[in-house]
Amino acid sequence: xxxxxxxxxxxxxxxxxxxxxxxxxxxxxxxxxxxxxxxxxxxxxxxxxxxxxxxxxxxxxxxxxxxxxxxxxxxxxxxxxxxxxxxxxxxxxxxxxxxxxxxxxxxxxxxxxxxxxxxxxxxxxxxxxxxxxxxxxxxxxxxxxxxxxxxxxxxxxxxxxxxxxxxxxxxxxxxxxxxxxxxxxxxxxxxxxxxxxxxxxxxxxxxxxxxxxxxxxxxxxxxxxxxxxxxxxxxxxxxxxxxxxxxxxxxxxxxxxxxxxxxxxxxxxxxxxxxxxxxxxxxxxxxxxxxxxxxxxxxxxxxxxxxxxxxxxxxxxxxxxxxxxxxxxxxxxxxxxxxxxxxxxxxxxxxxxxxxxxxxxxxxxxxxxxxxxxxxxxxxxxxxxxxxxxxxxxxxxxxxxxxxxxxxxxxxxxxxxxxxxxxxxxxxxxxxxxxxxxxxxxxxxxxxxxxxxxxxxxxxxxxxxxxxxxxxxxxxxxxxxxxxxxxxxxxxxxxxxxxxxxxxxxxxxxxxxxxxxxxxxxxxxxxxxxxxxxxxxxxxxxxxxxxxxxxxxxxxxxxxxxxxxxxxxxxxxxxxxxxxxxxxxxxxxxxxxxxxxxxxxxxxxxxxxxxxxxxxxxxxxxxxxxxxxxxxxxxxxxxxxxxxxxxxxxxxxxxxxxxxxxxxxxxxxxxxxxxxxxxxxxxxxxxxxx
Length: 690
What we know:
Blueprint: H1 25-35, H2 45-62, H3 68-85, H4 106-112, H5 121-137, H6 143-152, H7 161-184, H8 192-214, H9 217-221, H10 231-246, H11 250-261, H12 265-268, E1 273-274, E2 283-286, E3 291-295, E4 314-315, E5 317-321, H13 324-336, H14 373-378, H15 380-386, H16 391-398, E6 413-414, H17 416-430, E7 443-445, H18 452-468, H19 477-498, E8 520-523, E9 535-538, H20 541-563, H21 571-580, E10 589-591, E11 596-598, H22 601-606, H23 618-629, H24 634-641, H25 659-676
Parallel strand pairs: 1-2, 4-7
Antiparallel strand pairs: 2-3, 3-5, 6-7, 8-9, 10-11
Helix pairs in contact: 1-3, 1-8, 2-3, 2-5, 5-6, 5-7, 6-7, 10-11, 11-13, 15-16, 16-17, 18-19, 19-20, 20-21, 23-24
Region (Disordered): 1-21
């Protein structure tokens, strides 16, 4: 994607414009867009620039720390706003541009709002200080600060005005303190290479975000389209490109690298080459190791950080191999041009920029659609999926994220061996030989995926706790309460883990939604998809058996409470009766001081000792990968996860799945994995009776 600037600014930086001090408009805009992530089409750009200027000028008036670099940043934004004010973009407005996307782009939503100039002075100060710190430190405007500013800018009841002002002042103090520390540091200057890599990273990130958010249904399905080559054309193009590369054609080398990078040729040629020391960029080409490294940390924002014991190690930097012949060609090209810093430098003549050179030798003059290199690059993920490579692995291997949903990135954990195995299959189909040797290291993706060993130990501990607290014949209300609470936590954990439940203050497992003879239950723990949040969930055998023991436990508990003299109108007994009658009440509850406390993920997470604690939604992280390793396709894993992916939902008319068949395969795979984990139904007070 190229940045669209007013005519007075020009679409690309001019070689005569400075890149330091009084920066070129394109450089200023690049720096601003790095600080404030934006949708691919940059809606209401002129208004955002104007509001950024307003916030920075207000901050400059109220701060006592205003170094030279801070002044330069503010002056750059002022000049950028003045250039926009002379163009027609000032009046252009897209009121619905962020419809359903404000949560994904909170900073852009904040600055593009019509109400931004009318918020309190404290909020403007805080926004300006945070933006100044982001621009100076070359960091992102923090999402939680943007969301807090949006909340503080909303109208409130008269009795809450004082509290809102107090919160705004507190936020202003905290942001000012942080900005002051950043301003007082000796900030390193950016040279031309830093600015190039920053602009390249921003464009790559926007390219990936556009893939994730704007893919069409045919692209999601990988069903093939007129924008892709056929299988025969792909094989012929691959063989032709390899022959040209091995003959020393650097133009063909760039075209092969564009395919491997998963970027348009023009953007791929800006990728930095790593020969010695590492380079900070979203994508780098490591010639010595024969790898392409893609850092998704700035794209998959808000992902869970490591901090739980015994999780599978992971990183957000994906390493992918090059074909061995490509690595050798890169070495030869760099030896002939040792000053090359970027991929495009390997072809100093720039012949790749000629459109006529983007066609292949298979061009049929009678055909209306030629198998161009652009179509070859666009076909990379589809051909990988048709070769039998899992969708998720194919997406990470080819850098084509149109084939999977955005939510999958937060739960997916891919081992390096999977990437190398998939690369071997793809390169063989293209006639490109073997990949470079595998690099040892952690997997890619979720850093909180629990290991199977941890789940086994956790399950054993929970079972032992329930058995240890089991009351005998001479029971009391206190002993019943301790055992029941432990059993309720175990059952709730089983349901949440085996059904892929989300973290919730109160689990939305309702007694009315569970039927012993039903193939699935309806779960509503998030508004997703086309069913208003009510999603069908397959029921594995262990969940069905555990539910029977839970209902039997509730009947036995009610009988023992009656024996202890608690009347039927007692709050606990009334809730038990509602559960047994399958009323719309929380199915799992604890007893506390003659009252009922519905179980939530916080209760379950705090129950085990620290060595056995997991993320509240650990089941989602585990099953996302366990089901994939069991052989289920990515589309059926999405069905289990209740992820909405256009064209792949089993209950959509465009889907190729049959819900009943998919549920059968999901539960069959789950039942096998559950046996491997050693999980068995646990009995409560019913002594084995259902």
